[in-house]
């Protein structure tokens, strides 16, 4: 058995007096798509942020391909260079073109040549329906297009893991579909993905495994057909009934 791409072992995180993560254990295998569901405040985003070392854990370990990245001696920037992250807000640089936005990290962090980064960037943009936007600036794009550009930026360097945090929540409903289509395509390419979403129908369709969090605790996990069709825990059933999956 190969080591999971990412593994949380007893992860705890507290903000002030509030325990946001209370001993979470979770592993994601290579090429697996794992979807986190749960109410706002359940700990989904915080868990993702600990995995990219944006938030440091208070207890427990996080292993990236078997290496403990919560060791304080670890180079956080080197870890982040191995992980692609997309948040609900696109965080594109307004003064840079689309192509410059998607290639910046490849050039600055991964030391890919400008020509090679541009070649890869144009190739990915074209493959994902944005080839004609390479020279545009972000304010000329729709929200859905901006979010797709942010995803291209995250995958350009072939990260070991892609973290997606509520990437459709800031979008108009008609733009959600095009972003989720891109995630489907990434799944088809074998990308390892851990994502938090409120889109239950999408979670049911694209996830290999669905994980339900409540109040910082991993309550239940399993294949989508089990979680959505026959949840084992009353809290899972209650949540799904409330969101009308």
Automatic annotation (TrEMBL):
Keywords: Amino-acid transport, ATP-binding, Cell membrane, Membrane, Nucleotide-binding, Transport. It is found in: Cell membrane. SUPFAM superfamilies: P-loop containing nucleoside triphosphate hydrolases. Residues 6-240 form the ABC transporter domain. PROSITE patterns: ABC_TRANSPORTER_1, ABC_TRANSPORTER_2. Gene3D superfamilies: P-loop containing nucleotide triphosphate hydrolases. It holds the Pfam family ABC_tran. It is a peripheral membrane protein. Its main location: membrane. One of its GO terms (cellular component) is plasma membrane. GO terms for molecular function: ABC-type amino acid transporter activity; ATP binding; ATP hydrolysis activity. InterPro entries: AAA+_ATPase, ABC_ATPase_HisP-typ, ABC_transporter-like_ATP-bd, ABC_transporter-like_CS, MetN_ABC_transporter-like, P-loop_NTPase. Belongs to the ABC transporter superfamily. This is Glutamine transport ATP-binding protein GlnQ.
């Amino acid at each position: 058995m190969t080591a999971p791409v990412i593994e949380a072992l007893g992860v705890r995180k507290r903000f002030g007096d509030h325990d946001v993560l209370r001993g979470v254990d979770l592993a994601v295998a290579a090429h697996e798509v794992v979807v986190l569901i749960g109410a706002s405040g359940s700990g989904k985003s915080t868990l993702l942020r600990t995995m990219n070392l944006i938030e440091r854990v208070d207890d427990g370990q996080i292993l990236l391909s078997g290496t403990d990245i919560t060791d304080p001696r670890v180079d956080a920037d080197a870890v982040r260079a191995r992980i692609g992250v997309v948040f609900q807000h696109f965080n594109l640089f307004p003064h840079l073109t689309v192509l410059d936005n998607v290639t910046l990290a490849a050039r600055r962090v991964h030391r890919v040549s400008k020509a090679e980064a541009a070649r890869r960037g144009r190739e990915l943009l074209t493959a994902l329906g944005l080839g004609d936007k390479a020279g545009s600036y972000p304010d000329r794009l729709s929200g859905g297009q901006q979010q797709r550009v942010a995803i291209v930026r995250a995958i350009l360097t072939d990260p070991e893991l892609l973290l997606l945090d509520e990437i459709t929540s800031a979008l108009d409903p008609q733009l959600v579909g095009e972003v989720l289509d891109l995630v489907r395509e990434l799944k088809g390419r074998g990308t390892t993905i851990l994502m938090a979403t409120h889109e239950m129908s999408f979670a049911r369709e694209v996830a290999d495994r669905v994980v339900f969090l409540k109040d910082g605790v991993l309550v239940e996990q399993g294949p989508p057909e089990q979680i959505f069709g026959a949840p084992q825990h009353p809290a899972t059933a209650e949540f799904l009934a409330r969101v009308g999956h």
